Amino acid sequence: MLFVQQLHVKGRRDELLPPTSLRVSPGELLLVAADRQDQRTALALTISGRMKPTGGLITWAGNSRTKTLRLASALVDSPGVNEPEQHLSVRDLVTEDLALVPRRYRGALLSKPWLKINRFEDIADLWTEQLPAGKRTELLTALALANPHTDLLVVDSPDRHSASAADWLPRLKALAYDGGRPLAVVATVTALPDSWTGPAAVIGNAVQPAEEAPAALESAPESTPAQTAVTDQPSLADDESEALLRETEDAK
Question: Is position 241 within any domain?
């Protein structure tokens, strides 16, 4: 289970990610809503182990190590981070992504047979920018799952490609509820679809009124060794996260 409590990321001028709490277990799809793209991406980066938070608690299967979280998770289609470049063909994208699968699991994962097995031959010669929203989500999630150790799927703002939830929601539900390989799936979205009745959260849901903060701090339970809260200053897990942080702050 992914367990997140009062997770937040401090930006240069204000909080990039306001305190947020959520949880999701294998076999579940959780939708997390926020108006701002930078907040959605900051959450996606943090809960997939790509960015270290300023504070709060985050564990995967009871383990608070960032490395454990990162190895178990896949970040999908995050704007400015790992979204496909428009000049790439689907065939080249598949070749590049399969090369990132750990060598011991890669085997004969070549683009041509992979495209055939996964029924993407009909789009192999398209540019990634030509992909319909539904096919894009299907392709990118399939590539993320080429790594057999992916148990947590974090999809960043799939609704930015289409106004219709039918283009991405059925695919994510199918992945989460697949009995053969149950996944914990989190999708950040601009707003919850009207038809959605499943688990949901809102970024900033752990922000407390100023007058309630002292009482909350006094009653807060101590962390267990497996759930150590992060209290040091924010640092980024990789260069791509640092670039995103600069871009989102400059855009505000």
Answer: yes
